[in-house]
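--- STAGE predict ---
source: upstream dedup step, 1 unique chain passed
mode: sequence only
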Amino acid sequence: MRDNNAAEREIRMSKLRIKVSGCMRSMTGAQQFCAIRSYLSTAAKHGITALDALTQAATGTPWLPAAE
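--- STAGE serialize ---
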């Protein structure tokens, strides 16, 4: 699906999660979910796959975008 609404695409997964489960269980859980989704989204925009980004984060050497 291609459209120009990047913001809508970014929140689609969280809205689907809320629709399926009814809610987020806690504010902390919601913040963690959003942080992980944001990290993976930024990595994808830089050509890093989700699996690579998560593997690097789990091994203690998280991928970070280059400082501009």
